[in-house]
Amino acid sequence: MRTAPIILFFPKxxxxxxxxxxxxxxxxxxxxxxxxxxHHRGYSTRTxxxxxxxxxxxLREYTDSLRARETMRLLTEGHSPTxxxxxxGFATPQSFCRFCYRLFGAxxxxxxxxxxxSPPGE
Length: 122
Hints:
7 helices, Arc Repressor Mutant, subunit A, elongated
């Protein structure tokens, strides 16, 4: 059976991102949300959203791109979907599964199977 390739979309800002987030800031955003990240950076939540919008991104697009990258890394390393759902900041494995369907068109277990079946660099 032939499966469709996994295609990732990571939004880019207008002319390159001006806002840079450290790994710590990215982890805060994924696990604790925008209010925690805004507090960590000394902004209001609205200012954080405005700064991302200046780069041509919504907060959801940015968060989704972080979660997608981390999901693919963890799936490749062989972590279970339940572990990954906690690691990338979802309240339940079901919400993580819906996220995977929305972004990748397949449940996490199918993505992991496809990643294992395709050789690196393909």
